[in-house]
Amino acid sequence: MLITSNENSNVKLYIKLSSNKKARDEHNQFTIEGSRLLRESVLENADIQMIFATISAFEKNKDFLQKYHDRIITISEGIAKRLSNTKSDQGVFAIINKPENKPLRSQTLNGKFVVLNNIQDPGNLGTILRTADAVEISGVILTENCCDLYNPKVVRSTMGSLFRLNIFCENDFYDVCRKLKSEGVKIYAAVVTKNSVDILSSEFAENSAIVIGNEGNGLKDEHVSVCDERVTIKMNGNIESLNAGIAAAILMWEMTKI
Question: Domain boundaries in the chain?
């Protein structure tokens, strides 16, 4: 059956999940768009509930879509445009159940971690997650009202890293710091102040975490004060700071390099 109406209940559910965080939280589901991202979700055994595909998109991706024949809803090109959040859609979309959120306090923490504090831009968050995956960060911890992990722009920007990373969503920054310290993890605050250690001169502990703050305001002084050390990226000229995603990439590279 070819779906051509915006009033179809499954189409309406997809649109609701795609556009509304509250709906994503209530249904415990999120959406993805594009064949590459869907392939990544399949490889990582994501809990795919429903797939929307145009006839032409199904033919192009038949090699992996046909195993989900009982979950595929065929849609018109017009509906594909309605569902898409990009300028040129690929005609493939899916609804996926969120993975279970792992409580940080129940985890044994060894390795290198990134703590994100009030990161608000979905593109920045997605870029940070993708970079964390690339440099093999042990875990990413979201605190203090970071933007929604399952915002479509975040999901799209991760390019599949969302399905591979250890990601923890925690509200209380201080609880996160207490847990990290109890596990012997040294915490570094990324700041732009002059009275801090140049990242190039820092020797990160074997078990360490770097805290990256809000794009516009950085870290609150009270949050910096509970960290073990302050580090900064020294810059030339009149440049005072970098985009949060770029800064995070530099910091993670330095923290994880051998």
Answer: 2-97, 104-256
